[in-house]
Specification:
With about 45 residues, this protein is mainly alpha-helical. α1 packs antiparallel against α2. The mean pLDDT is about 90. It has one domain. The protein is built from two helices and no strands. The two termini are about 15 Å apart. InterPro entries: RNA_pol_sigma70_r2 (IPR007627), RNA_pol_sigma_r2 (IPR013325). It holds the Pfam family Sigma70_r2. One of its GO terms (molecular function) is DNA-binding transcription factor activity. This is RNA polymerase sigma-70 region 2 domain-containing protein. It comes from Candidatus Paraprevotella stercoravium.
Length: about 45
C-alpha cells in the first residue's frame, strides 16, 4: 500500500510541479522562491 501511495505522489509531483512553478512565478518573480513554495505545498500533502 505505501509503495502505491509513493508512486502516485511521484506521478503527481512530476506532472504538476512544472506548471505550479509557472503559476507561482506569476506571483513571485524569483525562481528559487517559487520552487520552495511549490515544494512546501507538496510536503504539506
Amino acid at each position: 500500500m505505501k509503495a502505491n501511495r509513493k508512486k502516485k505522489f511521484e506521478t503527481y509531483f512530476k506532472e504538476y510541479y512544472p506548471r505550479l512553478c509557472s503559476i507561482a512565478y506569476g506571483y513571485i518573480p524569483d525562481t528559487e522562491s517559487c520552487e520552495d513554495v511549490v515544494q512546501e505545498a507538496f510536503i504539506a500533502m
